[in-house]
Structures are given as structure tokens and as C-alpha cells.
């Protein structure tokens, strides 16, 4: 039987099914587990979580009858989670970039651990905890509602050895942001996010020597790598994912191309679903802007420029145009040169124009020296600065562009 109890009534041997409150308020990425470690018990009781749901059929019961609230057997687990997350949704009001970056960093840290465990479970042939996956999607959704740029921008910063896991999280966030731009309803936005999160689950079946190879893959190795959509589809089906689900579709078809040259089925044009077309754009953008074992990632605005040339053959034009509106022509973190000869980093998109974001200047090309940083909104009336070109950080020997953009958040 499910019941809600106070954390002070917890004891070893109980089976926790849900924490009452935000995922960020407790120290665990899991949504349910047998409480067997004294350190875990202490961590829960020291957290901000006040109540938890336990299942006495799967673990010890707790004698706290005056307080315990038994779950109505007619109410679904989803309904219960929605009730418990009411306090989270109230927090999803707009905030500024700097404030949300701190929250986004916490979400990404927890998500990395959760997705790593999902891949580990899949690699061993075990079921993936979809409750954890839904928790990740819920937190990403809340972050996008508070500030649409913060988590997406921060998710681009990955350590090489965590690329596979964080790529899944980044694509989930990009899919949800793009779905919002395309006016999907909230349920379909989260559906797109789940598809993004699970799109590369098949890579759990790829040998790590191939997955993390620092050099160019051989033809044989590339053939093995290209099997990950099919393997992912098999994994999802074996776990009960519906054969007509968006999650399965995007997993199978995010490498299909509009001109029919993609894989695994060589689909073309309208044979590819809208969500799979979205997955293709989001997957490629995060891949080419992230550092990989064999190359450094591209600057975000350079990546957008390159992808423009691929639209039509690789990407659906309408989907790609919506993607550009989502991130901006000069996405957050882009290095640009202004008409005054100053180098600047894009900090946020402005409401006025895709061509006129909010930037922070830091270097004078004319004087060949650093200058005191100044933040300016290029769309503000009277602003006589404009972007004249994109810049590649490598051409300027810049290795700290991320620090220029995200500042103390990376060091906190």
C-alpha cells in the first residue's frame, strides 16, 4: 500500500516511491528505491524534503497512523505526482538569465547522473526507469518556462567523457524549446522532450571503444555506430514503449534526411515525421557545438550558419527556420564583432530583433587589448552598435569564452 509519511518517520527497509517536492530539493536522482543505506537516510532527513511516499508492499511499513495518508487506489501515479509538483509549477515564473543559470546547473548535474544510470541499465539489459526520465523532462520544462535560454546554453558545455549522456539531455531541452516555438500544446512539448532524451539510448549497445574513439572511425566502426537507432528501437519496444510512439519514432529516425540519404531506412521528405525532423535538427546542432574526442565544437552562430546551408537536403526548411527563431541567429555564447571594432559575447536574445541580441563587449580589435566589459542591448532605441560578423574563438586564441558568458556560474 502507498502512503505519505514525514521524513522524520523514515527508517531503513522502507521502499520510497516518490519525494514530495522539487527534484532539486533532495540529493537523489532516483524516483524510487529501497532505503537500505544509513547515509541515504541521513541525507534525506537533512534535505529540504518534508514528506515522502512509501510502498509497504515492497518494503517495511511505518507506524505513523495519525499522519500517514494512504493513496486512493483509483488515483493514478501521474495524478499523484502532479499534485506533489504543484509547488514546483508555482516557481516556474520568468526570471533573469543569471538567476536561472544557477538553477539550470543543478538540473544538468542531476540529469547527468540519472542519464548515465539509464544507459548503464540499458547496457546490461535492464529496464530504464521512465519515472526518472519524466522527472528530468519536468525539470527541463520548468527551467524553460523560467528562462528559455539558460539551460539550453549551459547544456552545450560538456566534458568529453560525458558527451553521450549530456547530449541526450541537451537534445531533450532543444526539442522542448523548438516544440514551444512550433506552438505544440504542453503535453506534446513534454512528449518531444522525452523523445529527445531517449533518442540515443541505442548507443548503450555500442562498444565503448567505438563510441569514445578519439580518431576517425573505420568503415566497419561507422557501420556499427549507424546501428544505434535500430538497437535503440529494439530496447524501447522490449520495455513496452508503443510502436507508434513519438519516442520510438525519433529514436529510429533522427538520422534520416530530407533528400533520402539518411539512415536506417532512407526515408525522404514527408515520409519523415515532424518530430523526427525536429530530432534531426536538434541532434546535429548539439553535436557540432560540443567538444568531442576528435574535434572542438563550433561556435553557436557559426553552427547556425553552416546548418543554413544544409537545410533542404538534410533538414526540413520550416523546422529549421523555427529552430533559428528558438535560439536566435546569434545564439547565447556566440562570439561576434561589432561595428565599433569590439569583440563581444552574446548573453541573451532581445525581444526586438533576432539580429540584435544582448551582448557583453570585452576586447577592442582596433586597440588590440582587453577592455572593461560592458553589457548592451543592441535592439535598444538609440544604440548605434550592430553586429557586422561572426568570429571563431580559435582565431583569437580564446579558450575562456564560456567563462566570459557564464561567469561565476561555472565556478560556483
How is the secondary structure organized here?
Blueprint (H helix, E strand, L loop, with lengths): L1 E5 L8 E6 L12 E2 L3 H9 L4 E5 L13 E2 L6 H8 L1 H5 L6 H27 L6 H17 L3 H6 L7 H19 L4 H13 L9 H4 L7 H7 L2 H11 L7 H8 L20 H16 L10 H11 L6 H11 L7 E4 L3 E7 L9 E7 L4 E9 L9 E4 L10 H6 L6
Antiparallel strand pairs: 1-4, 1-5, 2-3, 2-4, 6-7, 6-10, 7-8, 8-9
Quick take:
With 412 residues, the protein is an alpha+beta fold. It contains 16 helices and ten strands. It has three domains: 2-90, no CATH class; 97-327, Hypothetical protein af1432 (Orthogonal Bundle), CATH 1.10.3210; 335-410.
The first-level CATH class of the largest domain is given as Mainly Alpha
| Main pleated-sheet profile | 5 strands, antiparallel
Provide the helix percentage: 40-55%
What name is given to the CATH topology of the largest domain? Hypothetical protein af1432
Q: Enumerate how many helices there are, as a single number.
A: 16
| Shape verdict | globular
Summed over residues and divided by their number, the pLDDT gives a mean of: 87
The succession of helices and strands, N to C, reads EEEHEEHHHHHHHHHHHHHHEEEEEH
For the record, the count of structural domains works out to: 3
CATH superfamily annotation of the largest domain: Hypothetical protein af1432
How far apart the termini lie comes to 42 Å
Major beta sheet, strand line-up? 3-2-4-1-5
Class inferred from helices and paired strands: alpha+beta
Hey, roughly how much beta strand do the residues contain? 5-15%
Give the CATH architecture of the largest domain: Orthogonal Bundle
Low-confidence stretches: 65-91
Rounded radius of gyration (Å): 23 Å
Amino acid at each position: 500500500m502507498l502512503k505519505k509519511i514525514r521524513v522524520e518517520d523514515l527508517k531503513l527497509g522502507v521502499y520510497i516511491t516518490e519525494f514530495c517536492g522539487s527534484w532539486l530539493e533532495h540529493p537523489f536522482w532516483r524516483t524510487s528505491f529501497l532505503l537500505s543505506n544509513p547515509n541515504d537516510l541521513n541525507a534525506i532527513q537533512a534535505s529540504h524534503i518534508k514528506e515522502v511516499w512509501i510502498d509497504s508492499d515492497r518494503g517495511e511499513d511505518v507506524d505513523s497512523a495519525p499522519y500517514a495518508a494512504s493513496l486512493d487506489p483509483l488515483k493514478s501515479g501521474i495524478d499523484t505526482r502532479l499534485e506533489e509538483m504543484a509547488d514546483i509549477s508555482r516557481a516556474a515564473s520568468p526570471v533573469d538569465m543569471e538567476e536561472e543559470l544557477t538553477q539550470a546547473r543543478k538540473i544538468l548535474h542531476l540529469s547527468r547522473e540519472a542519464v548515465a544510470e539509464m544507459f548503464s541499465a540499458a547496457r546490461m539489459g535492464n529496464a530504464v526507469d521512465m519515472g526518472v526520465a519524466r522527472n528530468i523532462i519536468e525539470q527541463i520544462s520548468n527551467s524553460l518556462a523560467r528562462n528559455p535560454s539558460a539551460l539550453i546554453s549551459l547544456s552545450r558545455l560538456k566534458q568529453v567523457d560525458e558527451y553521450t549522456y549530456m547530449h541526450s539531455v541537451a537534445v531533450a531541452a532543444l526539442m522542448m524549446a523548438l516544440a514551444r516555438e512550433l506552438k505544440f500544446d504542453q503535453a506534446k512539448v513534454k512528449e518531444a522532450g522525452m523523445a529527445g532524451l531517449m533518442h540515443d539510448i541505442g548507443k548503450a549497445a555500442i562498444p565503448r571503444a567505438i563510441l569514445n574513439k578519439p580518431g576517425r572511425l573505420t568503415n566497419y566502426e561507422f557501420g556499427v555506430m549507424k546501428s544505434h537507432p535500430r538497437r535503440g528501437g529494439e530496447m524501447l519496444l522490449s520495455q513496452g514503449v508503443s510502436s507508434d510512439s513519438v519516442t520510438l519514432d525519433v529514436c529510429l529516425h533522427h538520422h534520416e534526411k530530407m533528400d533520402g540519404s539518411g539512415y536506417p531506412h532512407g526515408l525522404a521528405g514527408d515520409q519523415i515525421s515532424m518530430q523526427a525532423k525536429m530530432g534531426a535538427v536538434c541532434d546535429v546542432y548539439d553535436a557540432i557545438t560540443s567538444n568531442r574526442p576528435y574535434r572542438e565544437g563550433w561556435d553557436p552562430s557559426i553552427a547556425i550558419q553552416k546548418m543554413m546551408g544544409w537545410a533542404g537536403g538534410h533538414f526540413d526548411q520550416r523546422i529549421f527556420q523555427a529552430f533559428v527563431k528558438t535560439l536566435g541567429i546569434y545564439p547565447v555564447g556566440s562570439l561576434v564583432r561589432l561595428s565599433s571594432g569590439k569583440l563581444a559575447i552574446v548573453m541573451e536574445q532581445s525581444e526586438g530583433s533576432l539580429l540584435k541580441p544582448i551582448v557583453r563587449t570585452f576586447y577592442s580589435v582596433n586597440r588590440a587589448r582587453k577592455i572593461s566589459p560592458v553589457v548592451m542591448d543592441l535592439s535598444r532605441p538609440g544604440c548605434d552598435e550592430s553586429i557586422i560578423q561572426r568570429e571563431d574563438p580559435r582565431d583569437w586564441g580564446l579558450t575562456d569564452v564560456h567563462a566570459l558568458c557564464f561567469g561565476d556560474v561555472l565556478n560556483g
